[in-house]
Amino acid sequence: MASPLSAAGAYANIARLTTDPSAGLGAVGGAQPKGETSFASVLKDAIGAVHETGHKSDVQSQAMVKGQGNMVDVVTAVAETEVAIDAVVAVRDKVIAAYEEIMRMPI
Hints:
This protein has 107 residues and is mainly alpha-helical. The chain has one domain (4-104). It has helices at residues 4-19, 39-65, 71-104.
């Protein structure tokens, strides 16, 4: 179970990505008006953040196996990774639900 602190950190990262136009990587597939962030860039940044969180968790776990890590740091890193992955899965589920709803619309 993830701690409230790690969940708050994950939500803060998502909020930062959606509210800070300079945090995006630019337009994907075409010109984007200046000052706006595309959904694709926000998604790419979020997945990159999940990848980075997972990498940190792996590094902490490997350090613990070598006897150089702290158990609290390992548990915290794993919990943060779990929260980040849960957020990505929730977004994926919403995208799939929206796609299915669009496919059910009459033409």
